[in-house]
Amino acid sequence: MRNPTARMWKGVLWAFCALVALWLAAPSLVVIPLGFTDKRSFSFPPTGWSTRWYTNFFQDPSWVGALASSLQVGALVAIVATIAGTAAAAALTRSAFRGRQAVNAVLLAPMIAPVIVVAVGLYALFLRANLLGTTLGFVIAHSVLALPFVIVPVTASLNGFDRRLESAAAICGANRWTTFRQVTLPLVAPGVISGALFAFVTSFDEVVISLFIQSPYLQTLPVKMYASVTRDTDPTIAAAATLILGLTTVLTLTITLYIARRNRVR
Amino acid sequence: MVTVQAPVAGSTTADRVIDQAAPSKRGGRLGLLAPAGLLLIVGLIVPLVIMLWYAFTDPSVGLGNFRWYLGDAVQQRILLRTFTTAVNVTVVCVLLGYPYAYAMVAAGPKLRAVLTLLVLVPFWTSLMVRTFAWVILLQDHGPVRTLLATLGLGEVQLIRTNLGVVIGMSQILLPFFVMPLYAVITNIDRRLILASSGLGAGPLTSFFRIWLPLSLPGVGAGSLIVFISSLGFYVTPALLGSPGNSLISQQIFTQVNGLLQWGRAGTMGVVLVVITFAILAILALVSRRSTRRIEGVRS
Amino acid sequence: MSDNSISQGAAITLNKLTKRYGHATAVDAIDLDAEPGEFLTLLGPSGSGKTTTLNMIAGFVDITEGEILIDGKPVYALPPHKRNMGMVFQHYALFPHMSVGENVAYPLRQRRLPKSERGRLVAEALNKVGLSNLSHRMPRQLSGGQQQRVALARAIVYNPRVLLMDEPLGALDKKLRDSLQLEIKRIHAELGTTFVYVTHDQDEALVLSDRIAVFNHGKIEQVGSAQDLYERPSTIFVAQFVGESSLFHGLAVDHGEGKGVVSLDRTLYAHRGDARIGAPAALVVRPERIRVQPTTGVEPSGNAVRGRILQEIYLGSSRKLEVELGDGSEVLVRESAGDVTANRPGDLVWLTFRPEDAVVLTSDESTATPQLAADDQIPVLTAQLAVQRNRSV
Questions:
Q1: A75 within a domain of the structure (yes/no)
Q2: For C49-84, how does the pLDDT look when each residue is reduced to its tens digit (9 = 90+)?
């Protein structure tokens, strides 16, 4: 880079990006110190330190219950969405058929539909079907949202898969199901596992729909946090937020490193 | 030793054997799509249809709800505010996200990994956590206000304002802009820039005439996602804004939660969905025309 | 035909086998027999239908019309995994997540063989292909040639009665191809299985096969041994695809007992041929059977055509001459190193050959008479061409 003007512009670019990066990452971090404040207020930065909000979190049955519900629903959604999404991705990539573009678009529709409208609609539906505040209801609602996040990585994995391997397995005597189990699935696993983790995170984080389909008997963690913020000033939220932040970061890093490692091995 | 064309003794099967596997192939495909399809119907289609139904039938059958909605000045103002907020958020994301994506492409592999991670982690961090973080930051005696005061910018009200909503939503939606844009510009052939400078163009010219046009599909895709998401955002406007400057999503909530006005909520829902589809359709047309232009020039 | 008395190969019969994709016909009502234990090659250019035929035998492609019989029994109802055939693919198709040993054992697993039995058969198969020590390696650690041998081992480990091979050596370099060809030939002799081999490389076909079926546009033009195809081609396509040929174009004419070919200003004679009288035809001679004489001196008797040498190509053990004829077409003449004449590019020469070395075949649109060049030095006159039919056709 001999040109000094170019170098100056480059410097400006990097400085700008550093600021943007800060803007992206830093705000969420404020919840961490706030969880250790000693006062019952959101004032930031905290002036004193205490761990009582964490103790409060783990001792309060409603908070722990919400965490447990989120984990349980998330795990179930991971299973349901992965099975449904993998099957759909298999159908999409197997062979070209008329209307494949349309089916693909429909399957990715949950990403485009305005969440609030779907949420209210689900509320009306579940009201009739007595599904409000039920695990089944939550799993259905979250799985729909999670579907696109499973279909995209699984489709990518399947597209990179050599079809002739299935022919080879067949001529060796394996039927369709055995071929899928012994040849296709192991080789497509990275995409499937990524999809499952994405599905879990999507469900764990979901707040809008969960607000509408909740009941006093079943609240997920983000819902409890929302209720708490609107009702009073309780730094226990910050403790919960920090826990969520930690869990999500660990999962995201795991997925990213896992995919990177698989790509390097290939 | 050349074969004689005589039928093999004992074979009574007709010479015509139709494609055996076709029906079972179709059945298999349908079976694979069934679970996802079922989920979509129950979890997405039916709720939307219910809202549509209410829009036209509650409290009475007809277009009454729409007439009310389009005639109500307050609602129209809210709709406009929703629209402009989405536009503002999109513009901020473009201005901040474009250089960031460009830097991601220009960076070396290690730096790019860091930049990518910095984009991905917020992408996956709960909406609730990030909104809450902004509540803390923008609160009345909070750090941002104090900072602005110290910098001599005076007393700026941030929370419970539309400004606060835009700030919060932009930060939350920025990854949704950067990722699609990065996906597009990472595929731009770097040699085109070399060719351009080889032909005598300065770096600024190369940027504006070569790089920028080729990156527009990515900008379009990212902006689309950000804009459409902004229209339907609920939690962030609810927590960072106020009832006085509410957006359409908050209105939908109010109609259902407090007033049990399903019809009116349905109407607003229909309006949102229609606007979303209209924008998608327009963008699809625009992108098809611009692709034809690029492909046309190539051929 | 393999003379294996303990023949483990099955007989394959294709009756009016047809495959259509919409309006396009990939395989057009072909009839073909493979004798038990035979090495049959399906030879042809890309898109000629040979791979589609192989895939129909394997069961990967559904039949539109006709039937496939293995040992007399129809197989159309059987899915691929029930047909008990072996197959080797062009890009090996080894399972990347399994070791070499696990790959080869895979078909045995499907047949529920006990572990000890599996181990024994895998060791035998790897031994046959010369890879005994590599059982624990992963496919990506092997070279192309080694991977193809593993694929072969996997295909023969359960002693199938039919082994299908889809251009298995296509992805390898020439030297490797040549050595693996010999390996495949050896394994075929050892096993006695019926091999059906697809390739577009006619040299490969000539080396490996007992018989070759030449495919063109979905039809089989000729089936026969290498010698049959080379010395007695029954169509112009076969004459040109298997080995090189020189063609003299014209109209078929009757002379004496049989038909003949008209060419330029003279009649050329052949001992064999079955072209339709009056139809466009070509007289086909192998380049090494043509002699070149300078035009100075007396005109030779018998089959003689005037031409001008365009190019000379030196090949070490022989040289090829490209000669332009009066009608603008070009023919090849091959002289072995010992018989090189003094002719050079630009010379006008006589090309001569014996009727026994020629055959007259019908031209279709793809091999029809080329357009006449604008300014010809040698005048073109239509004339009669006679062929004496040889009873041995």
A1: yes
A2: 999 999 999 999 999 999 999 998 999 889 999 998
Q: Please, what's the b/e burial string for A130-141 (b: 16 or more CB within 10 A of its CB; e: otherwise)?
A: ebbbbeebbbbb
Going by the DSSP 8-state scheme, the letter that residue C316 receives in this structure is S
Q: Does A143 touch chain B (CB under 8 A)?
A: yes
Q: For residue A181, what is the DSSP state?
A: I
Kindly determine whether residue C223 and residue B10, on different chains, have CB atoms separated by under 8 Å: no
Start-end ranges of CATH 3.40.50.300 in chain C? 12-231
pLDDT digits (tens, 9 = 90+) for A16-36: 888 888 888 888 888 888 888
Report helix, strand or coil for C353.
strand
Residue A153 has pLDDT above 50, yes or no: yes
Task: Name the nearest CA neighbour of A70 among A249, A256, A240.
Answer: A240
C375 secondary structure, DSSP code: S
3 state SS of B30? helix
**Is B80-245 a CATH 3.30.360.10 domain?**
no
pLDDT at B8: 37
Two tokens, residue B35: 């679970």
CB-CB contact of C348 with C288 (8 Å): no
Which subunits sit against C, judged by 3+ Cβ pairs under 8 A?
A: A, B
Calculate how close chain A gets to B43, using CA atoms only, in Å. 5
* The CA-based dihedral angle spanning residues B272, B278, B279, B282, taken in that order and rounded to the nearest 10 degrees: 180
Nearest residue in chain A measured CA to CA from B52? A121
Q: What is the pLDDT of residue C184?
A: 92
Which H helix or E strand runs over B113?
Answer: helix B109-124
pTM here is 0.73
∠ CA(C254), CA(C256), CA(C261), 5° rounding? 35
Below-70 pLDDT ranges, chain B: 1-26, 290-291, 294-299
pLDDT digits (tens, 9 = 90+) for C186-233: 999 999 999 999 999 988 999 999 999 999 999 999 999 999 899 888
Closest CA to C305 of C259, C250, C346, C264: C264
pLDDT in tens, A206-262: 999 999 999 888 899 999 999 988 888 888 898 898 988 888 888 888 877 877 776
Q: What is the CATH number of the domain that holds A227?
A: 1.10.3720.10
In chain C, which residues have their Cβ closer than 8 Å to the Cβ of B15? 15-16, 65-67
> C67, B2: Cβ pair inside 8 Å?
no
CATH architecture of C244-367: Beta Barrel (2.40)
What end-to-end distance do the CA atoms of chain C give, in Å? 22
CATH superfamily assigned to domain C12-231: P-loop containing nucleotide triphosphate hydrolases (3.40.50.300)
CB B232 within 8 A of CB B298: no
